[in-house]
Amino acid sequence: MNHCVKTMENKKFVVLCTVSLTFLLSIATVSAFVEELDDTFKDTRMPDEIWLIQFYAPWCTYCKQLDPVWYEIGAELKSMGSPVNVGKVDATAHTNFAKEFRVGGYPAIKLLKDDLKYNYRGPRTKDGIMGFADRVSGPVVRALPSQQLFQNVMSRHDVLFVYVGGPSDLKEKYISVAKELIVHTYFFSAARNILPKAVTLKEYPAVAVFKDGTYFLYEEQHDGDLASWINSERFLNYLQIDSYTLYEMGDTSKLVALAIVDERNPTEESIRYKTMVERVATEYKDLYSKEFQFGHMDGNEYINGLIMEELAMPSIIVLNVSNDGYFLPPNKVETKEQLVKFIDGVSKGRIKSQGGNGYYQCFIRIAFNTKTTVTNIFTNAPLLGAFLVVVFGGGGSAICYGLCMAWRSMRNTEAMSDTEDEEPITGERMEPKQLKGPGEDKKTETKAKNPAEKKAD
Ligand SMILES: *[C@@H]1O[C@H](CO)[C@@H](O)[C@H](O)[C@H]1NC(C)=O
């Protein structure tokens, strides 16, 4: 306020002060719906309370960026009368709390319902997080008692999983898979006569997914276990893909075929590329949809980091998310026919995968990212750059080796806990590939090594 008074004669400053004061006041009002939690939470929480909790660290910039969104979410859930309580906790000060929730990076967004802890890893937007809270806090499987409700739900969801039939082993399985995958998608159940006439079921009971204007049925012999089928069918056949979505697609075993375009500079060529990928996705659905996910991505930063060079835009690339491998067309892809030829080449193994996550690639990738960072430091702060080179110059390769080792062992650990999570004891899935999620600050301490510790949940 002192500042404000001193500069009173300057009108601009008065306006500025008023604006910032209003801003501060509004923050104060909305933040009233977010509770600051601490280690006593465990003792004071009522068993039936549902909590959406952000674990933050005071130094974490992504957490600060999330704060206004978090306060808005708190206010909005409250005004909607949602049963979800919103809180945040400084995970560096309340380490027991953070350990219990297995916080691996900041900000971590978790929902606690009964004794189940659910991990959110989608985009850190209000819509994304509110959708997650709504999905996970409600019933695991939602019944659709009428045709009208079925139509209603169909019109609101792009991808819809429905169990059709009465009690059965399949239904038990469906419910247990739903408990785990509710973080990603909604699950419904309906009686047979609720479905549209056009839907014909060979077998009964059945699990169907409605998407892309049609539906697919789960066939156990052909599709393997229900959880992996749901994981690979939970995306539209063609969609806009950002680094978060890509990261989630690590769970599907599909290859991701992408048009990389610059949306800030939408040339005719880039529109043509998107259309081309979308048409192949639609017209060749029967041929490729089991093996490929199609989409476009805005900007090439993420891909550049992966392939370690500047990818021209627009371009076509196929990614193997499960091993960081990628496929580039040997010749320019300009037409739908050329794209089909390329996709077919990848599918039949004629085109070889590049990249991957072997030791060699790992070294190269870290070197590339270091180079990019160092170049940035030098451009923005040459003195600091020079200082860092003196300090770290000699130790560079040792650091690089250490990072590689840490990265690999971390991935192995995650892979182990992923298997263990098949049983939906905690309802929480670990990221199958995670050194650092997009938009997440890495925690400096090492993670729990022993997956058995989770049993304590
Ligand atoms: C993608 O990566 C997985 C995991 O390493 C591997 O098993 C699979 O063969 C790869 N797919 C292709 C087409 O290279």
Summary of the model, kept short:
Belongs to the protein disulfide isomerase family. By secondary structure, this protein is of the alpha/beta class. It is 45% helix and 18% strand.
Strand order of the largest sheet: 12-14-13-15-16-17
Q: Assign a percent range to the helix content.
A: 40-55%
**Structure ligands:** 2-acetamido-2-deoxy-beta-D-glucopyranose
Q: Report strand %.
A: 15-25%
CATH class of the largest domain: Alpha Beta
**Second-tier CATH architecture of the largest domain:** 3-Layer(aba) Sandwich
User: Which structural class do the helices and strands define?
Assistant: alpha/beta
Number of strands: 18
Number of helices: 18
* Overall mean confidence score, pLDDT: 80
Provide the gyration radius in Å.
25 Å
Biggest sheet character: 6 strands, mixed
- The parts where pLDDT drops under 50 for at least 5 residues are 1-9, 394-398, 407-437, 444-457
Distance between the termini: 48 Å
Count of the separate structural domains: 4
What is the fold-level CATH name, i.e. the topology of the largest domain?
Answer: Glutaredoxin
What's the name of the CATH homologous superfamily of the largest domain? Glutaredoxin
Shape: flat
Oligomer: single chain
Membrane topology: Single-pass membrane protein
Domain Thioredoxin: 21-138
Signal peptide: 1-32
Catalytic activity: Catalyzes the rearrangement of -S-S- bonds in proteins
